Amino acid sequence: MSHTIGIIAFALSPDPREAVRMAKRGGFAGVEFDVSLPGVGAGAGGMWLQELDRSGQRELVRVLAAVDVKLLSLGTSAGRSGFSVGADVDRALGHLDKSLKVAADLGRTSGAALPLCVDIGPLPPPPVVIAPPPKAVDTSLLGRLIMPEPSLPVGPVLPEVPPDVAFESQLDAAMRALGRMADRYSVRVALRSELGSLPSLHRAMSAAECPMFALELDPVAVLRESKWTMETCLREFAGRVGHVRARDGLRGSGGRTQSAAIGRGHTNWSELIRLLDDANFEGAIVVDPMEHRDRAGAGAEALEYLRGLRGCFEGEGFGGDTPGEAGTPGDRGQLVGGGASVPGDDDSGGVVGELVCAGVGDDGVEEGLEVVAAGGAVAFGEGLADAGHSELVADGLAG
To answer: What is the DSSP string of 31-89?
Structure first.
C-alpha cells in the first residue's frame, strides 16, 4: 500500500512559502503547518493561521498548488499544562476551538479534509490493577487423594496505583468538550501526548467516546512504553490510527529515549509499515525532524529511508525504489514482496519468494541473507555488491 510522506513545514523554514518550495525540492508530497508559530505572521502570539482571512487562506492554497505540494494536516497543542489540575482549561479549549475552525476553513478551501494533530499535554497514570492471588485448594474435599498445600506467589508485589480522581474528572470533561467541537466542525482530531503514556491516552479517548478522535501514532511514544509493543499499540487503537508522526529514538531505561535519525534508532520500521498496511491505514506519514540540529538534512535522510521501505513492500526492489539498489541503512526485519530483481539476474521477473535479512547496515547487506524461492533458478549478479560484498552465501547458494 502506498503512503503519502510529508514533513513538518517549520522544520524547513519559518517562511511558509519557502518551506513549501523546499518540501517540493526535497521530494516530499506534502507538509504539515503548525497553527501557532511564534514570530510568524505578525500578531499577538504569532497565531498566523488563525489570523488569515478567507483571502489569505486562498492564497496559501494557491502557493501549495503552484508547486504541487499537499497540505496534509495542521498541528497544535493544548499547552504545557493541557487539561491537568490547575491548568487554564477554558483557555486551552478556546485555542483548540479556533484551531479546529482553521482546519475546517482550510479544508473547504483546499477541497480536502484536514486532520488537526493535537498534543493534549500531561495525562494521569492509568490505575494498576493487581490480580488477586489464586484461591487456595481445600484438600479436605479431595478424599483419599493427598495434595500438597498450595504455596503463595513468590516475589515482590507491586502496590496498586490509585487513580487520580480529580485529574481524570477534569480531563474527561475537557475531552468531551473537545469532542463536541470536533463534531461541530466535522474535523478529525489526531491525539498524542508527550507527557503521558499510551495506556493513559487510550483510557482518555475511550472515556470520551468521540468518533472524531484518532491516534497520532508516534513511534518514540511506543519506545517509551515498558509493556506495549508496536503490535500492541495497533491492536489497542484498532481502526483509530489517523496520522503517523515519523521520528525515531534510542530506548534507554525507565522509559527514557534519545532522539535518533529515522532508521538509526530502535523502531522497527519494516514491522510498523506492515502493521499499518494490515490495518488499512490511509492517513499521511509526516516526518518530524524538529529535534535534530540539521532539520532539512534529517528530513531528507528520513524520506530516503522511508521510500526504500515502501519500495520493498510494494515489490519495487530490495531496499529502494529501483531494482538492484543496495539495502537501506538500518533496515531490519522481514521483507516479503512479489519479487526482487537485481542487475545480473537472469530472470527479469525477480526472485519470487521471501527475503529474510538478519541485518542491513550502513554499508549494505552484511550477513544472514536467506532466499526462499518459490521455484526456478536463482542467479545473483553484481546488484547487491555495491558495498564491496563480492560474495553472498545463502543456504548453499553462492552468487
So the answer is: EEEES--TTSSSSGGG-HHHH--HHHHHHHHHHHHHTT-EEEEEEEES-SSTTSTTS-H
The gap between the terminal CA atoms of the chain, to the nearest Å, is 31
8 A C-beta contact, residue 32 and residue 9: yes
Q: State the chain's maximal CA–CA distance in angstroms.
A: 90
Q: Which of 37-41, 141-145, 169-173 is least confident?
A: 37-41
Question: Looking up cell 475511550, which residue turns up?
Answer: 206
Lowest mean pLDDT among 32-36, 147-151, 216-220, 256-260: 147-151
How far apart are alpha carbons 154 and 361 in whole angstroms?
Answer: 43
Residue type, 214: A
Q: Convert the pLDDT of each residue in 156-213 to its tens digit.
A: 555 556 778 999 999 999 999 999 999 999 999 999 999 999 999 999 999 999 999 9
Q: Which long-range contacts (CB under 8 A, 24 or more apart) does 221-227 make?
A: 221/192, 221/193, 222/198, 222/267, 223/249, 223/251, 223/257, 223/265, 223/266, 223/267, 224/197, 224/251, 224/255, 224/256, 224/257, 225/197, 225/198, 225/199, 225/255, 226/255
Given phi > 0 = left and psi -120 to 50 = alpha, else beta, which region is 397?
beta
State the pLDDT at residue 134: 63
Contact 313, 337 (CB under 8 A): yes
Question: 58-73: buried (b, 16+ CB within 10 Å) or exposed (e) per residue?
Answer: eebbebbeeeebbbbb
The span from the CA of 151 to the CA of 125, in Å, is 33
Residue 134, helix vs strand vs coil = coil
Cα–Cα nearest to 222, from 236, 209, 212, 210: 236
Which of the pair, 281 or 338, is modelled with greater confidence? 281
